[in-house]
Amino acid sequence: MNLQDTLLPPHAEMVRAMLERDTAYEGVFFTAVKTTGIFCRPSCTARKPKPENVEFFAHADEAMSAGYRACLRCKPLDAAAIAPDWIQALLKTVDAEPDLRWTDALLLEQGIEPLKLRRWFKQHFGMTFHAYLRTRRLGIALGGIKDGISIDNAAFDSGYESLSGFRDAFVKSFHITPGRAALSEPLLFTRLTTPLGPMLAMAERRGLVLLEFLDRPALTKELEELQQRYGYTVAPGHNAHLQQIETELAEYFAGNLTTFNVPLHMPGSAFAARVWAELQKIPYGETRSYGGIATALGSPGASRAVGLANGQNRLAIVIPCHRVIGADGSLTGYGGGQPRKAFLLRLEKAAVQVSLPLAF
């Protein structure tokens, strides 16, 4: 998808940012040079191409899918794995001072352009910064109610002066009344940036429940199932599991982590759970066929059922369904797209080769 079709800055502004090496646009878009076949960060110090020879992409994986190679100087794949410094600093402040009211004037005092911030949050979180703050405060209230805090105290702690205003905002965000929230399980979510594009991570107190690429076609259906079938109430926020998967993903993409240790919670059928457990047994850097997994489960004729359970996996990369290929060695389907599947397999194969001892 080209950036002209998104809520990102207009073409002229991206050209300006590229030519001026504007670091404020780090993580917002990538520049790809048609004449060299290379894509870069906006602030790359390499000689700038003519604007007519450049196209822009929202994510690194889109540039790779279009046939571009990562620049060896600015290393855009490394840049894609983290939010810009100014965003990271802002989010740390939000975590440290959740009650702080962020006005446009306060943002400007911190050197942050409100419109630029709005665009970044719309792209990466699907909501404005101020909407994110409101929903986050309500998420904290949701957790408090679940832990036994009275609705009155949760409302006032969230900055609402009236219970009716709090209730209306709560229902609008979570589609459930504060009274019923005490019976539901909060499912906190955050957005993670990776070299293959943004991912949505969701976790509850027992462990990580979902990790998916935001453009996965089945994501909407998966979220509906978690809410309607398993009774989760979804809210933005952080917990230890989300912090752990963010750290472990960064190590994985750096080629330094072969086994994920983040606790998992995987609602699903008994058969799906058996398939997912078998997927976790596939060694890093290796692959298995659907038939091979079916045989390992004692049901050699269940390749199709294995494929269905494989597609129902909500924990991309962590439950390595990307390591399952066709009997003929073809990549076959992958919810995140075959270019990503190929990338993950190449990453693991390269890391294994690097770690092998030299033969004499």
TrEMBL record:
Listed PANTHER family: METHYLATED-DNA--PROTEIN-CYSTEINE METHYLTRANSFERASE
Superkingdom of source: Bacteria
Protein name: Methylated-DNA--protein-cysteine methyltransferase
Listed SUPFAM superfamilies: Ada DNA repair protein, N-terminal domain (N-Ada 10), Methylated DNA-protein cysteine methyltransferase domain, Methylated DNA-protein cysteine methyltransferase, C-terminal domain
Similarity-based family: Belongs to the MGMT family.
Keywords for the protein's UniProt record, in alphabetical order: Activator, Cytoplasm, DNA damage, DNA repair, DNA-binding, Metal-binding, Methyltransferase, Transcription, Transcription regulation, Transferase, Zinc
Catalysed reaction equations from the record: a 4-O-methyl-thymidine in DNA + L-cysteinyl-[protein] = a thymidine in DNA + S-methyl-L-cysteinyl-[protein]; a 6-O-methyl-2'-deoxyguanosine in DNA + L-cysteinyl-[protein] = S-methyl-L-cysteinyl-[protein] + a 2'-deoxyguanosine in DNA
